[in-house]
Amino acid sequence: MPLGRLADFYASYQAQTLDQPVAETESVRAAVLCPLYIEDASLKMLFIKRSQTVRNHKGEISFPGGVKDPQDSSLMTTSIRETDEEIGVIEQDITIFGTLDEVNTSTGFLVSPFVGTIPYPYEFKLSLDEVDSLIGLAVNDFLEPDNEIDFFYFNGRQLTPQRAFKIDGHTIWGATAKIMGQFLDLGKRFDLFPKPNPQTFHLAS
User: What is the CATH number for 13?
Assistant: First the structure.
């Protein structure tokens, strides 16, 4: 599995930060964890389906995370704290490799995504006020061209094309798809993912 290569890569990757807007419209700082794990020899990414009672992005698929608290010493701390609060993975069980480029959301958040690993299987404890369910999807499924779909977001004034994925009946779009797209693009560019084994065909005798 490519976890060693991923760890080495993100330890040295210099994530791009976005220019801050003027103070009156400054984005709210937030952080998420992109939690990788191994199941049945397959590299997977863990997502959450947000509840219908959260303030923003009701029912959407996202990474565990949230807004930076004044008490958080860093955005990485935010990602770890929120992961613990939302799905019950404690700090000692999270290994952070590094961070992806910052992402702006259409709802005014500036998100720092952190890539790391969690143990699996794990005794998750969901915050039912925030999380409806967990969704684990194989990274290889995101690499299949047929699973990347045409998606348009309507903001009340115009339709905007966005990158999105549809896998096992789940649609991943918005900031989560941007973050996942970064992860995939870097993995392909720097050969971080294993190549699929070529199929062997035998002629019938």
Answer: 3.90.79.10
